[in-house]
């Protein structure tokens, strides 16, 4: 099967391409950051422009795996240029008239309104109404090892946390880290997505998460134990964390402001549809330290 993957140079995108290339022909679309993986064909393509539709079509995809999404600046006032960009990217994907697997986000369940969440909800609705086979997977907190010779433009948030845990005796977390997440290992996420593609996309949306929710503080302490050290947690208001996010190019103020909220999902429907059982966080946490050793 020939897969064209948008957003292939992202953390999740690169890992998905690596897993998919073991049994499929994979074309990895990128804009600025090339991807260099065995048996993966990199294809430079700027999805901001309409001419990208022809470039994607020339790869003759059997399925488009749509992972590309612009996040930064999603809190801009209407008309929101980031939302408009994501809408244009979905235009390119739907123009291919082939089945689509779309990686959305659990942000669609968050109580607060955000430009990022509105865009994801709109993309899901457009895909469901497109008349072609489709599936949506919404990962909660994907994590895993950094790939050698691959540097995503935006650092994966768990890698940032792992660096803080290994370098500092005191780790700042919004609200003291009481918010719960369900981290899903990127290999388990990729394998579940592949299973949906290979089984025939079921025209359904699934949340993807680990087997049980754990707090951000528990996540930080688990990383510390894997690194052989102890840490203390410094509680910070989410509003302060959001202001600090302005200083980092890989963080979004609007999303960080909601980081003290729970993000709990039910992974069982995806497990049933894909046959993939995600590993618990304690079984995969050491992967976060590989690039720091």
Please describe what this structure looks like.
The chain has 293 residues and is an alpha/beta fold. The protein has a single domain (2-292), classed as Rossmann fold (3-Layer(aba) Sandwich). Helices cover 35% and strands 18% of the residues. The protein has helices at residues 11-20, 52-58, 81-94, 115-128, 157-167, 186-198, 216-226, 238-245, 253-256, 268-274, 281-284; strands at residues 2-6, 25-30, 40-44, 63-66, 100-103, 134-139, 142-143, 170-174, 180-181, 184-185, 204-208, 214-215, 232-236. It has a 7-stranded parallel beta sheet with strand order 3-2-1-4-5-6-11, with helices on both faces. A two-stranded parallel ribbon has the order 7-10. Helix 5 crosses helix 7 (216-226). The N and C termini lie far apart (37 Å).
Please describe the topology of this protein:
Blueprint: E1 2-6, H1 11-20, E2 25-30, E3 40-44, H2 52-58, E4 63-66, H3 81-94, E5 100-103, H4 115-128, E6 134-139, E7 142-143, H5 157-167, E8 170-174, E9 180-181, E10 184-185, H6 186-198, E11 204-208, E12 214-215, H7 216-226, E13 232-236, H8 238-245, H9 253-256, H10 268-274, H11 281-284
Parallel strand pairs: 1-2, 1-4, 2-3, 4-5, 5-6, 6-11, 7-10, 8-13
Antiparallel strand pairs: 9-12
Average pLDDT: 88
How would you sum up the global shape? globular
The spatial strand order of the largest sheet comes to 3-2-1-4-5-6-11
For the record, the count of structural domains works out to: 1
Q: Unreliable runs, pLDDT <50, ≥5 residues?
A: none
CATH superfamily: NAD(P)-binding Rossmann-like Domain
- Specify Rg, calculated over alpha carbons: 18 Å
CATH class label: Alpha Beta
Find the CATH topology.
Answer: Rossmann fold
Number of helices: 11
Strand fraction: 15-25%
Strand-and-helix sequence, N→C?
Answer: EHEEHEHEHEEHEEEHEEHEHHHH
The helix-and-strand class reads alpha/beta
- Give the distance, in angstroms, between the N- and C-terminal Cα atoms: 37 Å
The number of distinct β-strands equals 13
Fraction of residues in H or I helices: 25-40%
């Amino acid at each position: 099967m020939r897969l064209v993957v948008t957003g292939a140079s992202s953390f999740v995108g690169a890992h998905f391409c690596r897993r998919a290339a073991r049994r499929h022909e994979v074309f990895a679309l990128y804009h600025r950051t090339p991807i260099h993986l065995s048996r993966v064909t990199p294809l430079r393509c700027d999805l901001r422009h309409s001419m990208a539709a022809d470039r994607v079509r020339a790869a003759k995809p059997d399925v488009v795996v749509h992972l590309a999404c612009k996040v930064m600046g999603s809190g801009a006032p209407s008309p929101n240029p980031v939302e408009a960009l994501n809408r244009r990217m979905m235009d390119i994907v739907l123009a291919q008239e082939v089945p689509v697997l779309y990686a959305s986000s659990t942000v669609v369940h968050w109580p607060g309104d955000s430009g990022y969440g509105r865009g994801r909800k709109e993309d899901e609705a457009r895909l469901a109404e497109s008349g072609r086979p489709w599936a949506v997977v919404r990962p909660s907190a994907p994590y895993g090892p950094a790939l050698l010779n691959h540097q995503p433009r935006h650092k994966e948030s768990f890698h940032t946390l792992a660096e803080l845990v290994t370098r500092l005796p005191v780790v700042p977390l919004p609200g003291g880290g009481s918010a719960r997440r369900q981290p899903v290992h990127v290999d388990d996420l990729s394998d579940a997505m592949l299973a949906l593609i290979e089984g025939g996309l079921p025209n359904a949306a699934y949340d993807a998460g680990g087997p049980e929710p754990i707090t951000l503080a528990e996540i930080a302490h688990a990383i510390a134990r894997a690194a052989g050290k102890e840490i203390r947690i410094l509680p910070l208001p989410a509003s302060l964390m959001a202001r600090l996010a302005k200083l980092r190019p890989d963080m979004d103020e609007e999303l960080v402001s909601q980081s003290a909220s729970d993000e709990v999902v039910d992974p069982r429907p995806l497990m049933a549809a894909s046959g993939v059982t995600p590993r618990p966080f304690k079984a995969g946490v050491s992967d976060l330290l590989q690039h720091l050793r």
